[in-house]
Amino acid sequence: QVQLVESGGGLVQPGGSLRLSCAASASIGSMYRIGWYRQAPGKQRELVAVIIRGGGANYGDSMNGRFTISRDNAKNTVYLQMNTLKPEDTAVYYCNAQVVPTGGDYWGQGTQVTVSS
Question: How confident is the model over 65-74, as pLDDT tens digits?
Fold first, then answer.
């Protein structure tokens, strides 16, 4: 069982930045996949960014180079740096992890990001 705890969400003005953190209860260095998804009201959950073991980082099409995923294995923490935020980035952001390719997904409780003036 892996627990994921997100933090760093909040209210930010358009054009601003936020950094989200996801602290895992297990070692992230050996995980198959760990990253971020988001879900806006009335929309499906979508990929933001993930790090896949041996494959680097993948980003969702909507991110357009504005977001950067990174990790600190010593802290078992994954970060999402979000720049040039837009109102359409408003959503609940969830941390997601998959320990092995054939295993199940683990999800955090989510953190709300609201982009509004």
Answer: 899 999 999 9
